[in-house]
Amino acid sequence: MKEIEVIIDTEEIAEFFFHELLKRGYVPTNEELNEMADITFEYLVEKSIIDENTDID
């Protein structure tokens, strides 16, 4: 299987959740969005969908 590089940005995840929740009638706070983004990132790492890499060029 071919390996590809994917960059996951928790700020981008938070923005995605914000827009999706607004569509559904919810207005989350920034703190709630950041927590959801962090939880999503941790879930992806735990499920081995992504590897956490702290090296930024």
Descriptive report:
With 57 residues, the protein is an all-alpha fold. The chain has a domain of 37 residues. The protein has two helices and no strands. α1 crosses α2. The longest helix is centred in the middle third of the chain and has 17 residues. The radius of gyration is 13 Å and the shape is elongated. The two termini are 26 Å apart.
Short description:
The protein is an all-alpha fold and 57 residues long.
Features:
57 residues, 54% helix, mainly alpha
The residue fraction in helices comes out at 40-55%
The assigned structural class equals mainly alpha
Largest sheet: none
H and E string? HH
Poorly predicted runs are none
Percent in strands = under 5%
**How far is the N terminus from the C terminus?**
26 Å
General shape: elongated
What is the number of helical segments per DSSP (H or I, 4+ residues)?
Answer: 2
Give the rounded overall mean pLDDT. Answer: 90
Instruction: Report the count of strand segments.
Output: 0
| Alpha-carbon Rg, integer | 13 Å
Write the layout of secondary structure elements.
Blueprint: H1 10-23, H2 30-46
Helix pairs in contact: 1-2
